[in-house]
Amino acid sequence: MKLYERCANDIAELIRSGVLRPGDKLPSVRDASLARSMSRSTIFEAYYLLETDGLIEARPRSGYYVRSGRMATALPEPCDSTPDGLEREVAVGQLVLDLLGCAGRREFVPLGSAFLSPTLCPLKRLARHLWTEMRDFDSWHLIEDLAAGNESLRRQLVLRYAIDGMAVDPAELVLTSGAMEGLNLCLHAVTQPGDVVVVESPTFYAALQALERLHLRAVEVATAPGRGIDIDALATTLRQHRVAACWLMPNFQNPLGSLMPQENKEALVAMLAEREIALIEDDAYAELYFGARKPLPAKAFDTNGLVMHCGSFSKCLAPGYRVGWVAGGRFAKRIEELRLMHTLSPAIPSEAAIAAYLNHGGFDRHLRRMRSALIGYQATAVQAVQDHFPASTRMAVPQGGYFLWLELPDTVDALALHFEARKRHISLAPGPLFSADRRFTHCLRLNYGHGCDPRFLPALQTVGELATQQCATATH
Amino acid sequence: MKLYERCANDIAELIRSGVLRPGDKLPSVRDASLARSMSRSTIFEAYYLLETDGLIEARPRSGYYVRSGRMATALPEPCDSTPDGLEREVAVGQLVLDLLGCAGRREFVPLGSAFLSPTLCPLKRLARHLWTEMRDFDSWHLIEDLAAGNESLRRQLVLRYAIDGMAVDPAELVLTSGAMEGLNLCLHAVTQPGDVVVVESPTFYAALQALERLHLRAVEVATAPGRGIDIDALATTLRQHRVAACWLMPNFQNPLGSLMPQENKEALVAMLAEREIALIEDDAYAELYFGARKPLPAKAFDTNGLVMHCGSFSKCLAPGYRVGWVAGGRFAKRIEELRLMHTLSPAIPSEAAIAAYLNHGGFDRHLRRMRSALIGYQATAVQAVQDHFPASTRMAVPQGGYFLWLELPDTVDALALHFEARKRHISLAPGPLFSADRRFTHCLRLNYGHGCDPRFLPALQTVGELATQQCATATH
């Protein structure tokens, strides 16, 4: 780690631990340079890094301040979930498809969408790489890459793991058509019809859909908006059920946005290793962290090859290109085989363009810009919820990703709210999408990844008003 | 149909029915013009069409002749298959992966490959379309197209169906990551674990792999190298088993190359409609016909929406781009939903580039060139088999696609031959890959789609000599 990075980390730690608070002024570059015996340019670089990471902001002719907004919410967090711990068959797929059919259409403000705004991504540079890579593409690669995947992309991925301090064997890397295919293949690789799979509560509906498709049974485990899955509750579940696999999102969980503390990730991996249970780790939002450092995935603590780490470029670089990957541990070969049988391969031009983008540098700079934008969007959305939603709304403000999870007063029916909003051309993702027994009836997942859309704020305000009206009607 | 097309069709029919035979000279343009009261340019255009379709050839300063080569084999056809008619679980996937792992690597002569040479495809033009389409791509389309698929591409597909005389509803078109994903989704859409599915005998190993993955049971039905699946045998099977679906390739079946007569396709569709059984129709080689006209798929005779017609651009235009489609009939919505849950969408840049290629014209010209090349490769391969393989070899010479199916003397062990060839850096697809009970032990599928590779002919010769040696060893 370079000197300025160490300096930035120190300050970030002070912010995280609450020693420095939103609005606090940082020492000037000159003062800090004297105090820490570092060159001014080192301090400046450290501040710049903190700024692009969204932790501090420069105010013209005044200096650097700890950013407010991100954590500045007056609303309490939603309650930890309390699922009933039963195994159940899943039948949520149709509901998801019915409700979210409109979420991707431009005439709808996409508060219910699962995607962030593609305008945050370097689409033109990627397009140029498509051309430069494919115009003289060695035609043998069009066949060879089908099985093995783009070799340069695989090396870049291994390198990025290495930078995060993780030794991932190139042989365990499987390229996939987005994280979605990767997750599905992992689940298929370690289960048989009828098996039981642990998911979070609430959980990403795609996990429920995957279980449904493969005729698996779900057990939901209590999950906190702040710290993610409850390790003790998981331990109990593992004692009570014969579990084939866990499908979890330790980082910036969808829909909660929760982030598991590192020690919990370690405990999770150890607990599963003891029982030889496979972990499918969805880390699609890994690069969209707002803190000073990328949180490690559970995979980082895996010594038994039981963790399948699923990543994607769809959320952070190349939406629609459909390239993701799995670091599949001991299941890698099986995952690759299943992919060969099912889709054969991700698109070769997509792989080649992303590989070229990574090779030419600038990915991390792009990511810093993207994170910075998302931090701003989040602040806007948090403020709007405080201003316009019913007073007793609870809200989790995550440290990454682009979802807010709202727990509205329990007189609110999120499904009804969804249909009301849809009439006004606003899409919403209501709570019942996120559990096998359709709980969370008064909860909402709000997407702030389109914060640049001029319709974003007015739409939030509209939804808040609709929710407030529902509360008023209920009390009368 | 234009006049010159009608004229070409008449001549093609004479060739097909055997009235005109390979080597026969056609009347001169002048004579034909007088005889048929058509302008010389009409006759010339008709001859040109027949030539590009590979049915006749111009010999300098001599005139037009019915092409030899394609059908000019002295070898008898392989026997019709005689499967035992039992339902069985499938476990062929691992064998396929083990045996064909080398088929895609450039150091191997790809006689066992499933792909044709990408050099036959307009790769540079596609690359340019990637750039021109994606550089200013409406970023909303990166989200909207995920669910619906590229709208222009969908229109082009409907149009191509219409040109073939088929009314396909745009609403039943689902874009997929190659035909492979399409076929798999269709199978998933109409079956539950434990169901029985009819396949041909021999059948494409991907069908067997798909059955295996979805915990389905296969019943193989007798299939002839010339006329495809035996309709009477199928009728018997349908009476004896509770069949959930059929997975068939009426056109240029892989591996046989067989082509079902149109009346059999009609009978097939009627028979399945009577019992409300779904047909998954793999038509991946549709464009690679050597006759004057594209043979209709079974889908053309479907009035009940029971036929799911799966096509692809991978074999005829854009290898590695991973774009295919399903005209899914009554199952279209379910197929699309399954795709949304599994891979979400094919790659948007791939879809956009192919749509642009189709819009800019030249696809049919490209296809004519491609077919013409394949006809030439086939003639070369057929000759080489006659010259170098054991005398009692039987061979099916198909009217399209790029596979030859060889039935070697039954003293030959195709698996052993495969391993011998592999030592010499030649890949082969041995017969046991193509049935659930690993029959066809003395059969081979030979790929002639790399006929432009200078190693192609020497490799064929080598394999023929290895087979001859095996025969000699067996008789001593």
Q: How do the strands and helices of this protein lay out in sequence?
A:
Two copies of one chain form a homodimer.
Chain A: H1 3-16, H2 29-36, H3 40-52, E1 56-59, E2 63-66, E3 88-89, H4 93-100, H5 123-134, H6 141-148, H7 151-163, E4 173-176, H8 178-190, E5 196-201, H9 205-213, E6 217-224, E7 228-229, H10 231-240, E8 243-248, H11 262-274, E9 278-282, E10 307-312, E11 324-327, H12 332-342, H13 348-359, H14 363-388, E12 394-396, E13 403-407, H15 414-423, E14 429-430, E15 443-447, H16 456-475
Parallel strand pairs in A: 5-6, 5-8, 8-9, 9-10
Antiparallel strand pairs in A: 1-2, 3-6, 4-11, 6-7, 10-11, 12-13, 13-15, 14-15
Helix pairs in contact in A: 1-3, 2-3, 5-13, 7-13, 8-9, 8-12, 14-16
Give me the CATH superfamily of the largest domain in chain A: Type I PLP-dependent aspartate aminotransferase-like (Major domain)
In one word, what is the shape of chain A?
globular
Report the structural category of chain A. alpha/beta
In total, the number of domains of chain A comes to: 3
Architecture (CATH level 2) name of the largest domain in chain A: 3-Layer(aba) Sandwich
Number of strands of chain A: 15
Average pLDDT reading of chain A: 92
Largest sheet features of chain A: 9 strands, mixed
CATH topology tier name of the largest domain in chain A: Aspartate Aminotransferase, domain 2
